[in-house]
Amino acid sequence: MEIIFVRHGEAMHQLDGGNGLCAHDPPLTDKGRRAAIRLSRLEPLGESDALVAGPVLYLLQTADLWARGTGCSRFVHPLAGPRQHPFRYDFRTPPCQRPMELERIAGRFPEFLLPAHLPEHLWLQGIHTLPGILFAQQAERFLTWCRGLEKSRVFIVTAESTLQAYRAHVSASSSGGRAGAGRGNRLSRWTVPLPV
Fold first, then answer.
1. What's the pLDDT score for residue 129?
2. How many domains does the chain have?
3. Is the pLDDT of residue 106 over 70?
4. What CATH number should be reported for the domain holding residue 59?
5. Does 94 map to a domain?
6. Which of 113-137 are b and which e, b meaning 16 or more Cβ less than 10 Å from the residue's Cβ?
7. Which DSSP helix (H) or strand (E) runs through 59?
8. Is residue 191 domain-resident?
9. DSSP state of 98
10. What InterPro entries does its record include (predicted)?
11. Rounded (to 5) percent helix, strand, coil in the chain
12. Range of 139's domain?
């Protein structure tokens, strides 16, 4: 089994420097949409695959465009990010990275399933500002959930900072810093770069 983290396509909040962080629900740019569609040709998905996206519009749009017309399982999961990295103790999530409400996700992305038995606060707040020890616990929970899908490949569409946070977590786990994800269960790839 492979767990593969994939960066989302270019989104509107990335074009406006620091001001872009204040945008609510920024969508993909035309370039980001084209890249996500191109990804479906470069990394085709099938029934033996699962695709997981964080509950943010540009993450879901990337996953949705990539998965169209495939038989892959699709999920939205708050532990797929976004997450800041390196962590700062400001405990503020910028508007562009706040999770969408579940009702809006269900309305716009009805093909995406929700995982069962998650605390409501994860859907409301996400993992952007979770302190390190809490993130480590949730990261283990998420990686275990991904393995439990029993798919040959699980692709996680997320932001670069989330990818880096999971990479740091797995590195610490496999070096003996914490028990868990890394021992015997290394993630075989970290990113599939989106085509330009």
1. 78
2. 1
3. yes
4. 3.40.50.1240
5. yes
6. eebeebeeebbebbbbbbeeeebbe
7. helix 57-67
8. no
9. S
10. His_Pase_superF_clade-1
11. 45, 10, 45
12. 2-174
List Cα–Cα distances, 21 to 43, 64, 94, 96, 100, in angstroms: 30, 23, 6, 5, 15
Question: Which structure tokens are listed for 131?
Answer: 């302190």
169, 165, 163: which is closest to 189 by C-alpha?
163
68-82 pLDDT, tens digit each? 999 999 999 999 987
Flag whether 188 is in a domain. Answer: no
- Among residues 53, 15, 11, the alpha carbon closest in space to that of 28 is found at 11
Number of H helices, E strands in the chain: 6, 4
CA dist 115 to 54, 95, 98, 101, 146, Å? 12, 24, 19, 15, 10
Q: Determine the Cα–Cα distance for residues 56 and 71; give it in Å rounded to an integer.
A: 23
Q: State the amino acid at position 128 in one-letter form.
A: H
Alpha-carbon distance of 99 to 106, in angstroms, equals 13
- Amino acid identity of residue 165, one-letter, is A
- Give which of 106, 112, 190 is closest to 156, Cα–Cα: 190
pLDDT of residue 141: 93
Q: Which two tokens stand for residue 89?
A: 């103790």
pLDDT score of 188: 43
| Residue 36: CB atoms within 10 Å | 26
Q: What average pLDDT does this structure show over 163-188?
A: 61
Query: Are 40 and 194 spatial neighbours (Cβ–Cβ below 8 Å)?
Result: no
Question: Is 68 among the domain residues?
Answer: yes
